[in-house]
Design goal:
Layout (H helix, E strand, L loop, with lengths): L1 H6 L7 E4 L2 H11 L3 E5 L8 E4 L2 H13 L10 E5 L3 E11 L3 E3 L4 E2 L2 E3 L3 E4 L4 E4 L6 H21 L5 E11 L5 E7 L7 H4 L7 H10 L13 E9 L11 E2 L2 H7 L3 E5 L2 E3 L5 E3 L3 E9 L2 H12 L7 E2 L6 H15 L1
Antiparallel strand pairs: 1-4, 2-3, 2-4, 5-6, 5-11, 7-10, 8-9, 10-13, 11-12, 13-18, 13-19, 14-17, 15-18, 16-17
Length: about 325
C-alpha cells in the first residue's frame, strides 16, 4: 500500500520498511519520537505501536523482528512518521474503475476511556463523523480513493469491493492522509453504516460486481448511529472464555432503535450465551442525533448482565463535543 501511495502521489506518512532490527533502530534514532512501528502482515488489530519514547520504539522493533510476537506478520516492519490529528474511517464501494462514497464513520481504537491504553480492533464507532464535511469528502475522493482505484487499474489489478480507508486529518497541514486500507466493511464501523443505509444493499453490491456503479445513487438515513463494543475483561491481552452473558433479548427490546450484534459468542450445553472471544458484542442504537444514539446504546448496554465483560463509557465523545460546540455557537 505504501509503495502504491508513493508511486501515485497519494498522501500518506513518510516511512521506511525494515527486516533488520538494528537498521530499524538506527532510522528511529535519526527521525526521533514519537514514531509509529507497524507489523507488515495481519496482526488481529494489534500490530501498530505508537511509541512515544526511544525505549518504547526499540521494544516494539524487538518484539516484532526479534521475538516474532506476530509470527510471519512481523518479519517485515514499517517505521513511519507520527501524524497528529483526528482519525476518521472513509468507505467507498468500487467497481474496478469507478467509486461511490459510503457514509462516514469514526471509530475508537484504544481500549480505555479518553483514548488511553493499547490499540484494539475497535471499541466502538459512530456515523456520521462530523469531522468529515462534504468538502473534505470530495477532497478524500479526489486525492486518495480515485487515485488508488486508477492506480490499481494501471497495475493490472483492478479492485472490486469495499475500500475502507483509515485516514488522519493532519493537524500540521489540515489535510487528510492515508493511514491504512482494508478491503472490507470495517468492524465495528459496519454496525453503524448498514443501519443507516436506506438503499438496497444487495443490488448495490451487484452493481459493483457488474461495473455499473455510475448508475447508482445511495440514500442514507438522517439519523445518527452509534455502537458500543463489549469485550471480555483483560482484552486486548489475555482473557477468560466461556463466561455467561444474560438478558440480551430484554436489553434489545427495552430501548427503541437498538440492535445487538454478536461477534464472539456461543452457546453452552444449557443453551446460555457465552463469550468465546475478545470483542464479544456490538450494541448499536439509532437516534435523531449522536447524543440520542449514544444515550440509547448505553441504556441497552446497562441492561446486559455480564460481570466478566467491560466497555468504554465514552464512545462518541468527539461527535458529542462537536454537536455541543455547534449548538452553543448557534445560541450565541
Amino acid at each position: 500500500m505504501k509503495k502504491l501511495c508513493t508511486k501515485y502521489n497519494i498522501p500518506t506518512a513518510e516511512y521506511r520498511s525494515f527486516t533488520d532490527a538494528d537498521d530499524a533502530k538506527s532510522y528511529i534514532r535519526e527521525i526521533g519520537t514519537p514514531v509509529v512501528v507497524k507489523a507488515d502482515g495481519l496482526a488481529a488489530g494489534k500490530g501498530v505501536i505508537i511509541a512515544m519514547t526511544l525505549d518504547d520504539a526499540f521494544d516494539a522493533v524487538d518484539s516484532m523482528l526479534v521475538d516474532r510476537a506476530f509470527g510471519a506478520a512481523g518479519g517485515l516492519i514499517i517505521v513511519e512518521e507520527f501524524l497528529d490529528g483526528e482519525e476518521v474511517s472513509f468507505f467507498a464501494l468500487v467497481d474496478g474503475e469507478y467509486a461511490v462514497p459510503l457514509a462516514s464513520a469514526q471509530d475508537h481504537k484504544r481500549v480505555g476511556d479518553g483514548d488511553t491504553g493499547p490499540n484494539t480492533g475497535g471499541m466502538g464507532a459512530y456515523s456520521p463523523a462530523p469531522l468529515l464535511t462534504s468538502e473534505l469528502e470530495d477532497l478524500v475522493m479526489n486525492t486518495i480513493i480515485l487515485p488508488t482505484v486508477k492506480g490499481m487499474e494501471k497495475e493490472g489489478c483492478k479492485f472490486v469491493g469495499v475500500l475502507y480507508a483509515g485516514l488522519i486529518l493532519d493537524k500540521r497541514t489540515q489535510m487528510p492522509k492515508l493511514l491504512e486500507y482494508n478491503v472490507r466493511f470495517g468492524d465495528p464501523e459496519c454496525q453503524v453504516l448498514i443501519p443507516r443505509l436506506q438503499s438496497d444493499l444487495a443490488s448495490t453490491l451487484l452493481a459493483a460486481c457488474k461495473g455499473e456503479l455510475r448508475k447508482v445513487s445511495l440514500s442514507w438515513s438522517n439519523e445518527a448511529a452509534l455502537v458500543v463494543v463489549l469485550a471480555s475483561e483483560g482484552y486486548p491481552g489475555k482473557y477468560k472464555k466461556g463466561t455467561t452473558i444474560g438478558n440480551l433479548e430484554k436489553a434489545e427490546a427495552a430501548v427503541p432503535g437498538t440492535k445487538i450484534f454478536h461477534a464472539g459468542t456461543g452457546l453452552d450445553s444449557h443453551g446460555n450465551v457465552i463469550a468465546t472471544g475478545g470483542r464479544v458484542l456490538g450494541v448499536t442504537a439509532l437516534g435523531r442525533n449522536i447524543v440520542e444514539a449514544q444515550k440509547r446504546a448505553y441504556q441497552a448496554v446497562d441492561q446486559i448482565h455480564w460481570p466478566d465483560g467491560f466497555c468504554r463509557r465514552d464512545i462518541g465523545w468527539r461527535a458529542v463535543s462537536h454537536l455541543q460546540e455547534h449548538e452553543k455557537a448557534v445560541l450565541e
